[in-house]
Amino acid sequence: MILYARRGGTFTERLQRFLAAMEARGLCAALIHKPQNMRYLTGFTGEGCLFISAQRQALLTDFRYVEQLSRQAPALECVRTRMGKSVETLAAELAADAGARTLAVETDFLCYDDWAALQAALGDVSLTPLAGLVEEMRLVKDEGEIDCIRRAADIACRAFKAILEVIRPGMTEREVAVALNCEMLKLGSEGEAFDTIACAGLNGSLPHAVPGEHRLQNGELLTLDFGATYKGYRSDMTRTVGVGRVDGALKALYQTVLEAHEMALDAVRPGAVCEAVDKIARDFIEARCPGSFGHALGHGVGLDIHEQPRLGRGDATVLRPGHVVTIEPGIYISGLGGCRIEDMAILTSDGFIDPIEAPKQLIEL
């Protein structure tokens, strides 16, 4: 039986789960600033910050987003900013009303100046780290989230199929990236999930190369790392294709990455340990191309393109249904080029679903 996580499907349920998690940690009130966390908890996609206590759940925002808030999160109280009081003063009033002695905030997001201004306004109320509480909730995706991720993956796969008809020698990397991004937009993406990577030839040895003016040449490998966005949720895929016929060392390099990729995918299942899956692909590549695979095997994907868990050395997270992770081994050799192949794995109760349907055998254009 294939099951995803079902709980927490509505924003009301998510807020209640968050309040319960706060209570378990001894937290009375929290102020959320991260846009993705606000969206996850409430559905609101505008600007502002979210105050949460047992007594009040309020969105502090200005005139521009008042109507938007009423449409997206009508159950939330709206506290208007830019009305003669600073955001910090309004947050302090809400904390006082809740009887809070501490206010939990995202210390990994607030800059020092904002933190200092907030602390000054709070007076005797102390700031304390929220310590990734919302991100912990976001680790396991529910059915609605997974549906959005699968739709984003479908858009990206269809865009890849279309772009294969466009790529030709003489195009620049930048032209390829722009064409791919436009194709995703035409197919329904809200925007690229991250800065699209298109790198060819010697630039392939740069894992996060920026598309430039290099013109594609016959015999090169072209790596495309890209994703679409659907209702805020991201997809992530990488395909490396040949510009014309690819021979020798580059073809062998591709085959090594493909085998490592398939070996790692075969190990993905509920109960598998992230670092152990990483080790399978890493050991295989290291035995054949020492020192050429320097990044983690994969990462979680959701409202952010990089989320927990991390499939890499030192991450002992046990995979479970509702986790959505990437599997993306690569080889990068200066003076030769590089290759990466990436799929996504949506963990289910009896294995995983791979929403990336694009072919993985070497395509020679």
List keywords for this structure.
3-stranded antiparallel sheet, single chain, 6-stranded mixed sheet, alpha+beta, 365 residues
Provide a descriptive summary of the structure in words:
This protein is α+β, with helices and mostly antiparallel strands and 365 residues long. Helices cover 35% and strands 21% of the residues. The protein contains ten helices and 18 strands. The strands form six sheets. A six-stranded mixed β-sheet has the order 4-3-2-1-5-6, with helices on both faces. Strands 7-8-11 form a three-stranded antiparallel β-sheet, covered by helices on one side. A three-stranded antiparallel β-sheet has the order 14-17-18. It is elongated. The relative contact order is 0.12.
What is this entry, summarized?
By secondary structure, the chain is α+β, with helices and mostly antiparallel strands. Helix content is 35%, strand content 21%.
**Which strand order spans the largest sheet, edge to edge or round the barrel?**
4-3-2-1-5-6
Percent strand? 15-25%
Structural class, by secondary structure, is: alpha+beta
Largest sheet: 6 strands, mixed
Unreliable sequence segments: 1-8
Determine the number of helices (DSSP H or I, runs of at least 4 residues): 10
Rg (CA only): 23 Å
Distance between the termini: 40 Å
Q: Could you give the order of the helices and strands?
A: HEHEEHEHEHEHHHEEEEEHHEEEEEEE
Shape: elongated
Helicity level, as a percent range? 25-40%
> How many strands?
18
What's the rounded overall pLDDT mean? 96
